[in-house]
Amino acid sequence: MGKRNRNRGRNGGGRDGGAEGKSDRDSGWGAGYADIIKENKLFEQYYQELKIVPEGEFEEFMEAMREPLPATIRITGYKSHAKEILHTLKEKYFKDIQDLEIDGQKIEAPQALSWYPDEQAWHTNMSRKILRKSPLLEKFHQFLVSETECGNISRQEAVSMIPPLLLKIEPHHKILDMCAAPGSKTAQLIEMLHSDMDVPFPEGFVIANDVDNKRCYLLVHQAKRLNSPCIMVVNHDASCIPRLMVEQNGTKDVLFYDRVLCDVPCSGDGTMRKNIDVWKKWTTSNSLHLHGLQLRIAVRGVEQLAVSGRMVYSTCSLNPIEDEAVIASLLEKSEGALELVDASADLPGLKYMPGITSWKLMTKEGQWYSDWSEVPTNRHTQIRPTMFPPTDPEKLQSMKLERCMRILPHHQNTGGFFVAVLMKKGPMPWNRRQPKVTVDSVKIKMKLFGFKEDPFVFLTEDDPVFPPIQTFYNLSSDFPKLNVLTRTHEGKKRHLYMVSKELRNVLLNNSERMKVINTGVKVWSRNNDGEQFGCAFRLAQEGIYTLNPYIRARVINISVEDVKVLLTEENPFLSRLGEDAHAQAKKLEMGSIVLRYQPDLKDPDAPQCPIELCGWRGKTSIRAFVPRNERLHYLRMVGVEVFKDKQGKKEGGASESQEGNAENTEEPGQEEDTAEQEQSDTEQNGSAQSKTNNSEDVSST
Predict the structure, then answer these.
(1) FRET partner for 652 with CA separation of 20 to 30 A, picked from 128, 175, 399, 439?
(2) Which residues are documented as binding site?
(3) What is the rounded CA–CA span in Å between residue 215 and residue 148?
(4) Quick one: which of 528, 452, 556, 537 has its CA closest to 497?
(5) pTM
(6) Confidence (pLDDT) at 78
(7) How far is CA 360 from CA 115, 320, 363, 375, 404, in A?
(8) Per DSSP, what are the bridge partners of residue 615?
(9) 3-state class of 340 per DSSP?
């Protein structure tokens, strides 16, 4: 994001509802609320005077602001498993909750957000206290946490879901997310790129930026859960984010984005229901201090937007100084190059108030100013002309500020939010000629950041690493070798990653212009003793769906019962598989394999989406190598549940040792070979008896 409000970490700062980067104690399902007086007379005086709330509704507005915010979840939309997750939620958990009573109170089941497509977003008023009182609700909570960890569910404030929807993403779009951390909106953008799961490399990509290096790693964590080769995380000040170059037809051109998400740092007074310390810290000075930064970020966004492209500007502030004032100034600067888009029909069911065309400023001392001419000279550094509405009535009318959208908390039980959709009709006045980028000027900026990230090194087509991989997995001839990269110039390549060819273009042509924190999805990892099995690289679960279209060997087709065996037994004998899978496995030599389940349309009770698991074929046994939460996800899909009781002991499903042996998520720049070493140790003792933990029960549904 841009230069942050220095209090942002405490008052929410205005992104994704403000607290998504916090611990589960402070955010998500059933967050607690401290005993604090939820009153601020200056806040009430200010917004009553501005009349952003319809007449007669102000008390209802204030009552809603004092109520705890409902928890909301979003089911990831691009994964083929989204429908299965939705089916599980509706048919298993929500139905049970409807008939549940606790302490004489009937529990209200979660409700779908009426304006979010395909019932992919839900909200509930269940508190953490309630969740702990019922074993059924505790299992529901564990389900949510587990599915969140493996990227199938995202805990995200309802209003935070709006901007990506209004961008109208298509798989070929090049997207810039300017102030992206902690990353829930970025995740939505990635999902939209992958709307067709049969296309492993969409033509589009997301470049997700944040100014805070530490928050960039929150962003990486969110993005890595989705295992996309089309996301790059960078670390820059959004107000001066570098202009990038790409090579097209042998010449270098400026990269202009089809879509820009400009979700700027803000005062966050729309988040009072969640970030209750805003009540005592709120003052009009917050907006006055942030307005200039917000405008600079928005200007930089439209500069990098392609003609005919769309930019969404959003804040979780209700203040017109941060909202309409920024949009009006942006439109005025554009001299007709930008127009506000009427998005009223884009989200049927969403209630909002149209943007306002008249507002005033108030200082923290309570002094009002209606026009720049009224501002005394000694205030000119804090209060600027761009904070006021345009004085020319015709110009103001032509801006159509009423097309902005302000979401008020009492209308649909949400947080407060502001969003505006802009379309670029032509170059900005100061960019009418093709801009020139000088590398030297950018280098100076980079020295200030002090880059220390591991390098991104692309392999050549004739790299010696490829022939054994190509032979072992019988990769198809169209496998894009040039999209494979590693993170080291010297020594053995320990992990191989893949990006789309479009992101490869960006990386190769901008190494001196940008600080890349993370990109690519891991597809292979070196196995210490793998060469004796024919290939030194085993498949990585993170990249299995990316590699799937190209792998033509080392594949075992499995049934639902095989999935249960592989994910609940630590190291089962080959004979534990069904007859068909067993026959396939016997034909394969030792080494890395793909375990593939294809849905049976004749069996509606079985999972109706494909499942791809990485595994290892040993001497006499077989094993799945899947991260713990992903393992639990697949078990649920085939009717097996694993939960912890109140003492933390597991009930049913995979054994403790098996879960512990699953691959860990690799942090950026770190090398991890625990699973590889363990895999090698396991296979050297391939005749060891496979086992399950007898202290745990497998509960099938």
Answers:
(1) 128
(2) 179-185, 210, 237, 263
(3) 19
(4) 537
(5) 0.86
(6) 65
(7) 32, 9, 10, 12, 18
(8) 593, 624
(9) strand
Phi then psi for residue 136, to 5 deg, are: -65, -45
Q: What is the DSSP letter of 244?
A: P
> Would you give the DSSP letter of residue 126?
-
C-alpha dihedral sign at 436, 438, 444, 449 = positive
Phi then psi dihedrals of residue 139, to 5 deg: -65, -40
Beta strand 257-263 with 71-75 is: unpaired
Query: Looking at the predicted structure, is the pLDDT value of residue 682 above 60?
Result: no
Return contacts of 136-139, CB within 8 angstroms, 24+ apart.
136/96, 136/97, 136/100, 137/97, 137/100, 137/102, 137/107, 138/643, 138/646, 139/93, 139/641, 139/643
Q: Give me the count of residues in the chain.
A: 701
Answer yes or no: are the C-beta atoms of 390 and 396 closer than 8 Å. yes
Give the Cα separation of 310 and 323 in Å (integer): 18
Amino acid at 390: P
Residue 288 has pLDDT above 80, yes or no: yes
Euclidean distance between CA atoms 227 and 150, whole angstroms: 10
**Residue 21 vs residue 512, higher pLDDT:** 512
- Report whether pLDDT(126) > 50: yes
Q: Which residues of 668-690 are buried (b: 16+ CB within 10 A; e: fewer)?
A: beeeeeebbeebbebbeebebeb
Residue 32 clears pLDDT 60, i.e. is over it: no
Q: With beta carbons less than 8 A apart as the criterion, state whether 581 and 559 touch.
A: yes
The residues that bridge with 700 in the sheet, in sequence order, are 640
pLDDT of residue 492: 84
**Token pair listed for 427:** 């170059």
Residue 404 DSSP code: S
Strand partners, 526: 537
Please, are residues 584 and 556 in contact by the beta-carbon 8 Å criterion? yes
Round to whole Å and give the CA distance between 513 and 445.
9
Cis peptide, bond prior to residue 182, ω within 30 of zero? yes
Buried b (16+ CB within 10 A) or exposed e, 317-339: bbbbbbbbbbbbbbbebbeebbb
How far is it, in rounded angstroms, from Cα 121 to Cα 161?
9
- What is the per-residue burial (b if ≥16 Cβ within 10 Å, else e) of 177-203? bbbbbbbbbbbbbbbbbbeeeeebbbe
Q: What is the spatial distance between Cα 303 and Cα 288, in angstroms, rounded to a whole number?
A: 24
Mean pLDDT for the stretch of residues 249-257: 94
Q: Give how far Cα 188 sits from Cα of 121, 149, 184, 379, 506, Å.
A: 12, 16, 7, 42, 22
What's the confidence (pLDDT) of residue 692? 33
* Mean pLDDT over each residue of the chain, to the nearest integer: 84
Q: Quote the tokens at residue 546.
A: 């990316």
Q: What is the pLDDT of residue 113?
A: 96
In sequence order, what are the residues at sequence separation of 6 or more whose Cβ sits closer than 8 angstroms to the Cβ of residue 679? Answer: 527, 538, 616, 623, 625
Six-digit token string for 349: 């069911």
Has 316 been annotated as catalytic?
A: yes
Sequence-distant (≥ 6) Cβ neighbours of residue 395 within 8 angstroms: 332
Place of tokens 């392999």: 459
- Binding site for S-adenosyl-L-methionine, by residue number, is 179-185, 210, 237, 263
Of the pLDDT bands very low, low, confident and very high (cuts 50, 70, 90), residue 534 is confident
d(CA 529, CA 460): 25
Number of neighbours of residue 112 by Cβ within 10 angstroms? 16
- 316, 404, 535, 614: the active-site residue: 316
Left, alpha or beta for 217 (phi > 0: left; psi -120 to 50: alpha)?
alpha
